[in-house]
C-alpha cells in the first residue's frame, strides 16, 4: 500500500476512494480499522472512521490507530479526509486530529484544502464557498451537528489546532507546483505548520497534488486527492476503475437521515411518486415507531421505498431542544442501523443511504468490513459492493447529487448504467 487515508466519516471516505479509483489507483475502503493485513495489490487504503462528531480525544485515538495500521501496510504518504464543507466545531475534530498526526509522523507541515470544484466548493483568500455563496450562507450554518457559521477556514482551523496557521493564496497556486511547494516550505519554516491552500479549479488541485509529492501528511476534501495518484503511478500503471463491477438488481430500499438542503430536495422529489415513510424524531423518541415497522413498510411496499427523517432546520432545532442534540442523533442513527439490519434480513440487496452519520451507523450496523469501489453515480458518490457479500450500496453525502439522485443510484446499483 502506498497512500494511507483516514476518513472522518463513511460517505466522505467513499468520496475519497472514488477520486483515487478514478485516478487509476487500486483502492479499498475499510469500515473501521481492519483486524488483519490488507490484501496484496491495494495501492490506496481508506480507513473510514465515524469520528467527525465524537469527542476530540476519541477522534484522535481512533485516527492514530488507523495511522498505525496504515503505516504497518507500508504507506509512505497519509491523507486525512474531512468534509469539503469543513464540518467541525470550534473544538474540533479536524485540528486535534491534524495535530496528533503531525506529531506522530514527525513532520512540521501539512496542507489543509477542502476545495472540491466538481461539487461547487472553492477556497479563495482562505474563505470557503459553496457555489456562489460563502459557506456560512450555504445552508451549512444550520447543520444539525456541525453548524458552519464562519467561512474563513484559516480562522476556523485556528480555533482547533495548537499550531500556527499558514496560507498559500490563489495567485501563488496559479503559478503552479514549484511556486506552491516553495510557499509551503516558507510557511513551515516560519513555524506555520497547518497551511491552508486556496484552490478554485481542478487545474489548481493537480498543481497542489504535484507540490505535495514530498509531504508526509495531506489533509482535505477529496478534491485535493485529484493530483495524488500521478505521484504514485507511472505511465501505463493506471487501472481502469470499476472494471470488475457487477450490479445487483435485487430488492432495494433508501434510508435518508441527512437534513441538508440537497437531501431534502431529493426526498421531496422521490416521495412524489414512490412509497415513502417519514420517521420523525418525536415518534422515535416516544417509541411510537419501531425499526420492524419501518422495515416492513419498505419490504411490503409497491415499489422501492424511502424511509427518511430528513426535516427542515426549525423541525430539527425543535427536536434537539426537546431531547438534546446527541440523544436525538444517537436514537435516529440507532433506529436506522437496526432498520437496515431488518431490511437485509428481509432480502434487500441494494441500499442507498443519505447522510454521513446515518451512513456510518448503517454500515457499522450491517457489520460490513471492506467495500469495493464501483462506478461513479454522481460527483463524490461511487457505487460500492460489500466485499464477499450483499448488499451493493451508495453512501451519499448529505449535500451531494442532483434532485433525482435516488432513482439514478438505484439504476446504477442495479447494473443499469
Ligand atoms: N428529524 C430530525 N430531527 C432531529 N435531528 C435530525 C432529524 N433528521 C436528521 N437529524 C440529525 O441530522 C444528522 C444528519 O447527519 P448526517 O447523517 O451526517 O447528514 P449530513 O451528511 O447532511 O451531515 C443526524 O445524525 C441527526 O442527528
Ligand atoms: O467532502 C465532502 O463533502 C463529502 O465527502 C463528505 O465528507 C460528506 O459528509 P456528509 O455531508 O456528512 O455526508
Describe the structure.
There is one protein chain. The two termini are 31 Å apart. The protein has 2 domains: 230 residues, Putative sugar-binding, N-terminal domain (Rossmann fold, 3-Layer(aba) Sandwich); 162 residues, 3-Layer(aba) Sandwich (Molybdenum Cofactor Biosythetic Enzyme, Chain A), CATH 3.40.980.20. The strands form 2 sheets. It has a 15-stranded mixed β-sheet, sandwiched between helices. A 3-stranded antiparallel β-sheet has the order 6-7-8, with no helix packed on it. Helix 11 crosses helix 13 and helix 12 crosses helix 13. It is an alpha/beta fold and 417 residues long. The chain is globular. 55% of the residues are buried. Ligand LB5GJZVW binds next to helix 1.
Give a summary of the structure in a few sentences.
The chain is α/β, with parallel strands linked by helices. Helices cover 39% and strands 20% of the residues. Strands 9-10-5-11-4-1-3-2-16-17-18-15-12-14-13 form a 15-stranded mixed β-sheet, with helices on both faces. Strands 6-7-8 form a 3-stranded antiparallel β-sheet, with no helix packed on it.
Ions, cofactors and other ligands present here are: adenosine-5'-diphosphate, ligand LB5GJZVW
How is the quaternary structure best described? single chain
**Structural class from helices and strands?**
alpha/beta
Care to count the β-strands? 18
Share of β-strand residues: 15-25%
Total count of domains: 2
- Please, what is the CATH homologous superfamily of the largest domain? Putative sugar-binding, N-terminal domain
Shape, principal axes of CA atoms = globular
- Radius of gyration over all CA atoms, rounded: 20 Å
Counted by DSSP, the helix tally is: 15
Fraction in helix = 25-40%
CATH class assignment of the largest domain: Alpha Beta
Largest sheet descriptor: 15 strands, mixed
User: Which sequence of strands runs across the widest sheet?
Assistant: 9-10-5-11-4-1-3-2-16-17-18-15-12-14-13
Q: What fold name goes in the CATH topology slot of the largest domain?
A: Rossmann fold
What's the mean pLDDT score?
96
Second rung of CATH, namely the architecture of the largest domain: 3-Layer(aba) Sandwich
Low-pLDDT stretches: none
Amino acid at each position: 500500500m502506498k497512500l494511507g487515508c483516514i476518513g472522518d466519516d463513511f460517505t466522505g471516505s467513499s468520496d475519497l476512494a472514488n477520486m483515487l479509483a478514478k485516478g487509476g489507483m487500486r483502492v479499498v475502503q475499510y469500515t473501521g480499522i481492519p483486524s488483519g493485513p490488507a490484501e496484496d495489490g491495494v495501492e490506496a487504503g481508506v480507513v473510514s472512521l465515524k469520528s467527525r462528531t465524537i469527542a476530540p480525544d476519541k477522534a484522535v485515538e481512533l485516527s492514530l490507530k488507523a495511522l498505525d495500521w496504515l503505516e504497518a501496510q507500508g504507506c509512505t504518504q497519509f491523507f486525512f479526509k474531512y468534509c469539503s464543507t469543513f464540518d467541525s466545531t470550534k473544538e474540533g475534530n479536524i485540528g486535534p486530529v491534524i495535530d496528533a498526526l503531525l506529531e506522530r509522523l514527525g513532520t512540521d507541515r501539512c496542507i489543509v484544502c477542502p476545495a472540491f470544484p466538481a461539487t461547487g466548493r472553492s477556497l479563495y483568500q482562505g474563505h470557503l464557498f459553496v457555489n456562489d455563496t460563502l459557506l456560512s450562507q450555504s445552508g451549512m450554518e444550520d447543520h444539525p451537528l456541525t453548524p458552519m457559521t464562519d467561512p474563513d477556514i484559516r480562522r476556523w482551523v485556528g480555533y482547533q489546532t495548537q499550531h500556527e496557521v499558514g496560507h498559500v493564496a490563489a495567485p501563488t497556486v496559479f503559478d503552479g507546483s514549484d511556486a506552491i511547494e516553495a510557499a509551503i516550505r516558507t510557511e513551515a519554516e516560519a513555524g506555520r505548520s497547518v497551511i491552508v491552500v486556496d484552490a478554485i479549479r481542478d487545474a489548481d488541485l493537480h498543481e497542489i497534488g504535484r507540490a505535495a509529492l514530498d509531504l508526509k501528511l495531506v489533509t482535505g476534501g477529496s478534491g485535493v486527492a485529484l493530483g495524488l495518484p500521478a505521484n504514485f503511478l507511472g505511465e501505463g500503471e493506471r487501472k481502469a476503475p470499476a472494471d470488475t463491477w457487477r450490479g445487483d438488481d435485487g430488492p432495494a430500499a433508501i434510508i435518508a437521515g441527512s437534513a441538508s438542503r440537497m437531501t431534502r430536495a431529493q426526498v421531496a422529489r422521490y416521495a412524489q411518486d414512490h412509497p415513502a415513510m417519514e420517521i420523525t424524531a418525536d415518534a422515535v423518541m416516544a417509541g411510537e415507531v419501531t425499526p420492524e415497522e419501518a422495515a416492513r413498510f419498505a419490504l411490503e411496499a409497491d415499489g422501492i421505498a424511502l424511509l427518511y427523517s430528513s426535516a427542515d432546520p426549525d423541525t430539527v432545532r425543535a427536536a434537539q431542544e426537546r431531547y438534546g442534540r446527541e440523544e436525538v442523533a444517537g436514537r435516529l442513527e440507532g433506529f436506522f442501523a437496526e432498520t437496515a439490519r431488518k431490511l437485509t434480513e428481509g432480502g434487500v440487496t441494494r441500499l442507498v443511504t443519505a447522510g454521513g452519520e446515518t451512513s456510518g451507523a448503517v454500515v457499522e450496523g450491517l457489520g460490513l468490513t471492506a467495500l469495493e469501489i464501483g462506478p461513479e453515480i454522481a460527483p463524490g458518490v461511487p457505487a460500492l459492493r460489500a466485499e464477499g457479500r450483499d448488499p451493493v450500496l451508495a453512501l451519499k453525502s448529505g449535500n451531494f447529487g442532483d434532485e433525482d439522485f435516488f432513482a439514478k443510484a438505484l439504476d446504477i446499483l442495479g447494473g443499469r448504467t
